[in-house]
Amino acid sequence: MADVTLAGVTKSFGEKRAIASLDLTIADGEFVVLLGPTGAGKTTTLRLIAGLETPDEGVVSIGGRPVNGEGPAMRDVAFVFQQYSLYPHLTVYENLAFPLRSPARRLDRATIDARVRQVAAMVRIDHKLENRSTRLSGGEMQRVAIGRALVRRPSIYLMDEPLSSLDAKLRGELRLELKRIQKETGSTLLYVTHDQIEAMTMADRIGILAEGKLVQIGTPREIYTNPANLHVAARLGQPHINLLPADLLPGPTPPAGTRTIGARTEHLEIARSPDGNAEIVRVEHLGDQNHLHITMGAHKITTLADPDMPVDAGDRISLTLKRPLYFGQDGQRLA
Ligand SMILES: Nc1ncnc2c1ncn2[C@@H]1O[C@H](COP(=O)(O)OP(=O)(O)OP(=O)(O)O)[C@@H](O)[C@H]1O
């Protein structure tokens, strides 16, 4: 079993508390994505699990075994970083074979060869095995870097923004492949990203970190539809959720104590109306949808609309809320 547990883990760097009493469990075979703003403690969490940092307090366990005293080599964990970190003078084949050649592994040549070829096929780089790693595109290099982690067959993968340096098309392709590989191999994977699409599409569960604390963890759908507070609500959704005063828009009566209403596209009803309560100031045509930028008094609202909806800048519309999210004074969700 390769479940990972952090229990009450705290880690400071000098005065800075990077991780504050963090409790997190990743089940065996689960794909968990950590999302959070810069400095939230995502990388530090990975490094604590890898054994590259030692907790000040609390316990890190892998497969039920406390590993606080164990170095990285003993933890059977593979780390994939944002930078490719390949050996430039070696071929793709040699880069993939390298982790298997350590004397401690005692693998024979045929076993190494079979494993390299199997993983190369998995990450779809088998046609470039003899290329030098410097003569690859960014996407190919990152496939090799991921392959080099896979070839070792560790029980846990830790990935720190492995796709962020790639262009959007490659990111989309590798996202699908990573998810497929993780399913096929049944590996436990903890993945850090700023990219909410990666989080939504790959994660079994998303953990939202803020200031070294786990604010919420749940399936992508739970985190999106049932955010625990304003912070979580603002992390997911494109365009960004609109955070509005409780009495701005007509709609259902908010629960007592409502300070802020969270309205995503699906919480807003739009109708063209010359005496409507809002005005469209800009329409961005994105092809399959339109981005509408709306003002209502001093407030700005952004939402999506069907490209067939005949609206232009300057049009007045009436905006109504339907089942939005309600938040109290302290930012916590009320309903
Ligand atoms: N080695 C270190 N020395 C001093 N401070 C550190 C060190 N490592 C991390 N920190 C601090 O701890 C906090 C958390 O850092 P961490 O790298 O875990 O954040 P992150 O969520 O991964 O951020 P990013 O998204 O920018 O990578 C930050 O304030 C950072 O400056």
UniProtKB/TrEMBL annotation:
GO terms for molecular function: ABC-type transporter activity; ATP binding; ATP hydrolysis activity. SMART domains: AAA. PROSITE patterns: ABC_TRANSPORTER_1, ABC_TRANSPORTER_2. Residues 4-236 form the ABC transporter domain. Pfam families: ABC_tran (PF00005), TOBE_2 (PF08402). SUPFAM superfamilies: MOP-like (SSF50331), P-loop containing nucleoside triphosphate hydrolases (SSF52540). Keywords: ATP-binding, Nucleotide-binding, Transport. InterPro entries: AAA+_ATPase (IPR003593), ABC_transporter-like_ATP-bd (IPR003439), ABC_transporter-like_CS (IPR017871), ABC_transpr_MalK-like (IPR015855), ABC_transpr_MalK/UgpC-like (IPR047641), Mo/tungstate-bd_C_term_dom (IPR008995), NA-bd_OB-fold (IPR012340), P-loop_NTPase (IPR027417). Belongs to the ABC transporter superfamily. This is ABC transporter ATP-binding protein. It comes from Ancylobacter pratisalsi.
